[in-house]
Amino acid sequence: MHFTKKMSSFQNLSQVKVVPDFQSLVETPFKGNTNALCWERTLDGDFEEIVHQLVLEDDITEVSVEMLTSLKLTEKGNQAREIILRDMQLLADFGAQPSLNLLKKYERDEELDFISTDVYSYHVDRSPIASDTFLCTYFGAASDILPNHQAQQSILIPEVRGKLKSLYNGPEEDFEDFLKENFFDLHYEALPNAEPINLGNGHLWRLAIDQPFSEVLPCVHRAPQENGNYRLLLIC
Predict the structure, then answer these.
(1) In the structure, how many helices (H) and strands (E) does the chain have?
(2) Cβ-based neighbour number of residue 130 at 10 Å
(3) Measured between alpha carbons, how far is 92 from 96 in angstroms, rounded to an integer?
(4) Sign of CA dihedral 120, 123, 124, 126
(5) Considering the entire predicted model, what is its pTM?
(6) What confidence tens digit (pLDDT) does each residue in 141-157 have?
(7) Contact in structure between 217 and 35 (CB atoms under 8 Å)
(8) How many Å apart are CA 5 and CA 74, to the nearest integer?
């Protein structure tokens, strides 16, 4: 692997535990306030070269292994490609289904003006089975996470909750199910003076999600504003 170590940027954050390698990333349990694990790395290689050679077919293009290996790259570009392929193989061997995405932007949710349900808003992921979210931004703007005590669930904000109730026509006892079925309960607002943690480039992260067997709160996170720039993101 072509990466070097430096002093950790995340070591003193109670929400984040820094681990030394992939095995520790997948085996270390979440505990207490810690719901984000980081294999912190400074990667050698030219990931921008890969981005410039790939063809964006839509706002989000999934990059296959075949597409990646077909690129004619310099030595630095090839180093970057080897790292990506290695990360994908590690995750696949673990049993995950990694997806490498070249993206310009995600779809925005503009249907309701009082609550946002797209990935640019703070949110948590959910699964009916035991799982976590893995992600690494190789190039471009990186996601933010937020300590849970610095976030408020959007559906608990009185004004938002009142407007959601005005949309709902069913029995009162089924209102919470309505919120969950439409994913309103997954979204959060940052509290005043909240301090987001940027995930940076090159680090491989594991984030806790809302799932039946989790012993910690799910990690609140959001996608960054791309501002017209491309991102190269590995996620599963």
Answers:
(1) 6, 15
(2) 10
(3) 5
(4) negative
(5) 0.93
(6) 999 999 999 999 999 99
(7) yes
(8) 24
